[in-house]
Design brief:
Oligomer: single chain
Strand order of the largest sheet: 1-5-6-10-9-8-7
Radius of gyration: 37 Å
Shape: elongated
GO molecular function: ATP binding; magnesium ion binding; phenylalanine-tRNA ligase activity; tRNA binding
Pfam family, one: tRNA-synt_2d
Keywords: Aminoacyl-tRNA synthetase, ATP-binding, Cytoplasm, Ligase, Magnesium, Metal-binding, Nucleotide-binding, Protein biosynthesis
Number of helices: 11
Cofactor: Mg(2+)
CATH architecture of the largest domain: 2-Layer Sandwich
Structural class: alpha+beta
CATH topology of the largest domain: BirA Bifunctional Protein, domain 2
Protein name: Phenylalanine--tRNA ligase alpha subunit
């Protein structure tokens, strides 16, 4: 018993005289005295050799040694840390580095703006899968078997017989809505679409669309025009000029494309508007009776209109972006320009 107590006193004396010049030395002290294989652990293991009548005294001595070693280690560590802080010249009273605040992507900003405008007109939001079957993407939309859009040059097919593909437009979402809902139907369908096109400043193999569909009794082309007039004024301002041009789409009849005065050159003529002063922003028309009948909707009772626009094109005119590829290059210099547009 006396030998053990003498040894403890020596350990305490050695620890008291220990000094640390750096963090490594302070860590070595901890390992030597307080580690799992250290001196304290060894001393505590001697408890089994101490007579029962002396165990209480021995336990108190060991606890005192433990407290002393822990205080000593804390002092060494604190002394080293204080010296390091002083030598670094760090002024803790200075303000911290600014934290950079991110923003939504310009396409997300534009999409949310479009959705917000049409929601005010009573349109509900509808979404669908990016991978579609041939029926929902083409057949239900009155596109014949020999339509060029079905060709491998335009469409990314995943499987054939049966045909599965990356959707070429969000009209497939309209098809799924008409499949599950009865009129009146009033929805907008935003989402990403895919087409096998050469990537350039004006085209990409993927882009984003917002399509709209309204089906009810006595819906007319005048309703379509006034809806789109309202949208354009809200998106681009009251000074924007609008024109409709007759066009053709398999899923609408009659059909029209909608142009607005170029926001890049203010109608003076530039590369974006091909020096015409006008830029096409969407296609539209009255839903073809065949499309309605494909989903069991009585075309003699119900009529409807549909429209579709590219979000990239709207963002291009809204923010004067001159290259479609900028949207997907993740260039921080480009994205930082939209920091204020939350």
């Amino acid at each position: 018993m006396d030998n053990i107590l003498t040894q403890i006193a020596q350990y305490k004396q050695e620890a008291s005289a220990f000094t640390a010049a750096n963090a490594e030395a302070a860590e070595n002290f901890r390992i030597k005295y307080l580690g799992t294989k250290g001196i304290l652990k060894s001393v505590m293991g001697e408890m089994k050799n101490v007579p029962n009548e002396n165990k209480k005294q021995f336990g108190q001595t060991v606890n005192e040694l433990k407290s002393f070693l822990e205080r000593k280690h804390a002092e060494l560590k604190a002394a080293f840390e204080s010296r390091e802080t002083a030598s670094s010249g760090m002024d803790l009273s200075l303000p911290g580095d600014p934290v950079s605040v991110g923003t939504r992507h310009p396409l997300t900003i534009t999409r949310n703006r479009i959705v917000s405008i049409f929601k005010r007109l009573g349109f509900a939001l509808a979404e669908g899968p990016d991978i579609e079957d041939d029926w929902h993407n083409f057949g239900a939309m009155n596109l014949p078997e020999d339509h060029p859009a079905r060709d491998m040059q335009d469409t990314f097919y995943i499987n054939q017989n049966p045909s599965w593909l990356l959707r070429t437009h969000t009209s497939s979402v309209q098809a799924r809505v008409m499949e599950t809902q009865k009129p009146p139907i009033r929805v907008i369908c935003p989402g990403r679409v895919y087409r096998n096109e050469t990537i350039s400043a004006r085209a990409h193999c993927f882009f984003h669309q917002v399509e709209g569909l309204y089906i009810d009794e006595n819906v007319s082309f005048a309703d379509l025009k006034q809806t789109l007039y309202f949208f354009v004024k809200e998106m681009f301002g009251n000074d924007v000029k609008v024109r409709f041009r007759p066009s053709y789409f398999p899923f609408t009849e009659p059909s029209a494309e909608m142009d607005i005065s170029c926001r890049i050159c203010e109608g003076e003529g530039c590369n974006v508007c091909k020096h015409t002063g006008w830029v096409e922003i969407l296609g539209s028309g009255m839903v073809h009776p065949n499309v309605l009948e494909n989903f069991g909707i009585d075309s003699n009772k119900y009529t409807g209109y549909a429209f579709g626009m590219g979000i990239e094109r709207i963002a291009q005119l809204k923010y004067r972006v001159n290259d479609l590829r900028l949207y997907s290059q993740n260039d921080v210099r480009f994205l930082k320009q939209f920091t204020g547009a939350l």
